[in-house]
Amino acid sequence: MKDDLIDEAGFELGLPSHEELLQHQCDLLCSELELTRRNLRSAHKELSGLISMYRQTCRELGTLKVEHERLRWTLSDLYRREGDKEAGKMVYQYGDHAPSEKKL
Questions:
Q1: Contact (Cβ atoms closer than 8 angstroms) between residue 100 and residue 92
Q2: What is the pLDDT of residues 53-84, one digit of tens each?
Q3: Rounded to whole angstroms, what are the CA distances from 15 to 4, 12, 20, 21?
Q4: What is the rounded CA–CA span in Å between residue 72 and residue 31?
Q5: pLDDT at residue 49 greater than cutoff 90
Q6: Three-state SS across the chain?
Q7: What CA–CA distance (Å, rounded) separates 47 from 65?
Q8: What pLDDT is recorded for position 64?
Q9: Could you tell me the sign of the dihedral formed by the alpha carbons of 66, 72, 73, 74, in that order?
Q10: What is the spatial distance between Cα 29 and Cα 58, in angstroms, rounded to a whole number?
Q11: pLDDT tens digits for 3-36?
Q12: Cβ–Cβ under 8 Å, residues 103 and 92
């Protein structure tokens, strides 16, 4: 009579010895280590690419900040000149009772 409760497939040659189990464990650890090293090299390459991109964007940001400040001052000066020009066109200003010349 055959006992079907325990599947013995794969054990036809017997159980592995303790040394064979340890050797198999070492092989598994070595393959995991190699995979980890490959992943680490890949991550290092990706990280170096990201660092170079970051440095480039920092340089561009510095250039854009200088340009922004220059444009802000130019626009401020333009608004001040326009305000002075419009104020000069006013004939009467509040609280000013002195006669002024009208521009024709």
A1: yes
A2: 999 999 999 999 999 999 999 999 999 998 88
A3: 19, 9, 10, 10
A4: 60
A5: yes
A6: CCCCCCCCCCCCCCCCCHHHHHHHHHHHHHHHHHHHHHHHHHHHHHHHHHHHHHHHHHHHHHHHHHHHHHHHHHHHHHHHHHHHHHHHHCCCCCCCCCCCCCCC
A7: 26
A8: 97
A9: positive
A10: 42
A11: 667 777 767 777 888 999 999 999 999 999 999 9
A12: no
52 touches 61 (CB < 8 A): no
pLDDT band, residue 96 (cuts 50/70/90): low
Return the structure tokens found at 34: 């190699």
Tokens read off for 10: 């794969």
Q: Which amino acid is at 87?
A: A
